[in-house]
Amino acid sequence: MMRFTTLIKNPADWMTGEGADNAIVLTSRIRLARNLRGESFPGWAKKEERRHALEVMRPAVEGLSVMKDAFSQELDDLTSVQKQVLVERHLISREHAARGEGSAAVIERRQSIALMLNEEDHLRMQAIRPGMSLRGAFESLSAIDDELENALELAFDHELGYLTTCPTNLGTGLRASAMLHLPALVLSDQIGQVLQAVNKIGLAVRGLYGEGTESLGNLFQISNQSTLGESEETILRRLERVISQVATHERNARDKLLEDDPAMVSDKIGRAYGVLRHAWIIDSKEALTHLSLLRLGGDLGFLPQDTVKTCDALLMDIQPAHLQLHSGRKMTPEERDSIRAEIVRGRLQSLEAPDIRSTRKKDESDPDPEIL
């Protein structure tokens, strides 16, 4: 089995966005909730019942074909910083990290598949893919679900579907979500009405780390709310439609900002570049805000295209637990702010100043409307 240090040494496949268009839709995630038949659900289970459920599940999960040379660990055997790193990487939930004895995580080596054992449900499995790829994520998880159905007896009712701790997960047990980067909708004050419209049709909008978290770095997570009475196909199709509509609104907002107020866009990106290249102390929130604008600059052509990838790697590496792991010791918030600034400066050292003229290139190359 893989060690924690080996798992974390490499960025996850979905973090690097390899081969995917992730300018607006960063990642797609599918999660399935399942429980064992005849076992008390984790929230009600006594300690020995949780341990028993874990002993039943763990060999089946480790035996999955995708889990060859995977990382598998009981959460009790991880330090609080290690658990927090897994939360920051979206590999376990904050709730799972807080659970004690009898909980475990099994994570595929490329980190695109992760299974939480004894979280709110006995099994929470997830697949993450870069860009807009809900189908691909669903298909890979579906194959794992089929494998587990053959190895374990799952709690299933012919009327209600899969039985889960929370009624909103009943039925398919499926939660599909995408992480979107929406800086132009935020800058043009349209974000409120777009998110309101998304909420109105029964989808949830959350921050960077899901339920109860704020949006940082202009990142928003859109997911389905309920699963009962709808097929997987219906849930996925609705989400795909809404996400592509929101992405189109963002793309249009980017074009319109460049057209209507190129000076403001240039200023925002230029200032973000200046702060990140020269700050000696920077907190998480400020760093994420500026990285978001730098990422936008990479997409709009102010900065080289690979700036987007650099920003994505930094989004993860400057999170508090990642910083502590990097320095190998517990740090005060002030120390973290200094180390964060140092890492950012180092990574952006060779990044040249934004090419602000690129905002005018479009106008100069446009034919004169009066001649047409």
Automatic annotation (TrEMBL):
SUPFAM superfamilies (alphabetical): Glutamine synthetase/guanido kinase
What the record says about activity regulation is: Appears to be allosterically activated by the binding of pArg-containing polypeptides to the pArg-binding pocket localized in the C-terminal domain of McsB.
Residues spanning the signal sequence: none
Q: Which residues bind ATP?
A: 27-31, 90, 124, 175-179, 206-211
**InterPro entries this protein is in?**
Arg_Kinase, ATP-guanido_PTrfase, ATP-guanido_PTrfase_AS, ATP-guanido_PTrfase_cat, Gln_synth/guanido_kin_cat_dom
Where does the record place the region Disordered? 350-372
What are the EC numbers?
A: 2.7.14.1
Q: Which PANTHER family match?
A: ARGININE KINASE 1-RELATED, ARGININE OR CREATINE KINASE
Q: Which HAMAP family match?
A: Prot_Arg_kinase
Q: Tell me what this protein is called.
A: Protein-arginine kinase
Q: Which organism is it from?
A: Luteolibacter soli
